[in-house]
Amino acid sequence: MPDPRTIPITDPDDPRIADYRNLTDGELRRAEATGLAPRCIAEGDYTVRQMLRAPGVTTSILIDEERLAADAASPDPLLPRIPANLPIYTCPRAILQSIVGYPFHRGVLACGRHSPHPDPAALAKTCRAALVLEDLTNSENVGAAFRTLAALAGVPQPGEPSPTAIFLSPGCCDPLYRKSIRVSIGLALHIPYARLEPWPAALSTLTAAGLTTIALTPDAAPAAITTPTPPPRVALPPAAAGPRPVRRRARPGGS
After folding, report:
1. pLDDT tens for each residue of 135-186
2. 54 — phi, psi (to 5°)?
3. From CA 202, how far away is CA 213, in angstroms rounded?
4. Rounded distance, CA 62 to CA 43, Å?
5. Signed CA dihedral, 40, 158, 67, 106: sign only
6. CB 41 within 8 Å of CB 85
């Protein structure tokens, strides 16, 4: 028996699922990657659950009929975790793939809306560990940065300040682009981030908040990696994805 909350979709052009349409469209991808699109998309069961955990973000669910049937028999079903006010659209897998525009086999997607970015100065005062990403334009690498930071320094707990944060230069792609969310296993929806502008002068915001910037350099003059005593609160700027050196950007307020 179909779940009474599900809304069948029989036409890929149904306006109710417009947010999921043609996810590989070039103009749309550029808008999402630069943060100009107001929506964000989560792909797959685990990442959809992560989006549902983020308060007030999720706006709808799209699930194929095969995945819906498997969910009913699952010991940990997804549908009971979906708030009653969210529409749950369902359709055959072939129609879902026609909607999104590529061979999608994970069975379920969720659409959400961007939350306002926190103030960089306020965020820098509350975190104990941060990554500073410079001109990182590969969305999967951005997602991996969130996942790595969570593994090494922890994730936010409900009602508590986040122990971690990520600060982005203006040239970084949006962490809530579809591929970034997927590679981060949804952690980009939970670890707070903010853009530092103007760049690189805004790095002083981190220093003023008490974060110590530590970076690696091929220059032999700074201290050896085994010498410094780890400070209690650190900001780590990994090297930029391009060929430019980051030495001049790593120095303000740091080692």
Report:
1. 998 999 999 999 999 998 988 887 788 899 999 999 898 899 899 999 999 9
2. -80, 115
3. 13
4. 10
5. positive
6. no
**Separation between Cα atoms, residue 255 and residue 247, nearest integer Å:** 10
Amino acid in the structure at residue 189: L
Quote the DSSP letter at residue 51.
H
At 80, list the tokens: 């009971």
Determine the Cα angle at 75 with ends 69 and 79, to 5°. Answer: 55
Torsion, Cα 216 219 225 228, to 10 degrees, reads -100
| Residue 247 pLDDT grade (very low, low, confident, very high; cuts 50, 70, 90) | very low
Q: Residue length, the chain?
A: 255
**Cβ(20)–Cβ(59) below 8 Å:** no
pTM for this one? 0.84
Neighbours of 24 (CB within 10 A): 10
| Burial of residue 230, with CB atoms counted within 10 A of its CB: 0-12 exposed, 13-18 middle, 19 or more buried | exposed
Rg (CA), the chain: 20
* DSSP per-residue letters across 132-179: EE-S---HHHHHHHHHHHHHHH----TTS--SEEEEE-TTSPPTTSHH
Looking at the chain, the whole-number percentage of residues with pLDDT higher than 90 is 62
| pLDDT tier for residue 187 given thresholds of 50, 70 and 90 | very high
- Report residue 12 as tokens: 């890929």
- Distance of alpha carbon 74 from the chain centroid: 27
Q: Which amino acid is at 33?
A: A
Q: Which amino acid is at 91?
A: C
